[in-house]
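=== Structural record ===
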Amino acid sequence: MQEKEIRLLFKAGVFESCQAIPVSMSRGWTLKFITKDKEVITLNLQRANSEREFKSLDGASAVAKRIGFDWLNVQIGELQWREKVS
């Protein structure tokens, strides 16, 4: 799903949380959005139907903030923590 569609769903109160998950240690991060029904929605590229990847956690955090999230859940394997997006 594209960013503008996710932003509309966020304003409608559909999401429970936003997660940043590494694609692989060398490739970067991806954003997953968890709905209140526990459905997972992935942020896609604007011009392609493939998953959007961020080079840094800061880049993923900036997009989560732009969508409207105040907190970002970060998950690397079993390690999880919560970051305030700025």
Observations:
- The chain has a mean pLDDT of 93.
- The two ends are 23 Å apart (CA to CA).
- The beta strands are 15-24, 28-35, 40-42, 71-76, 79-84.
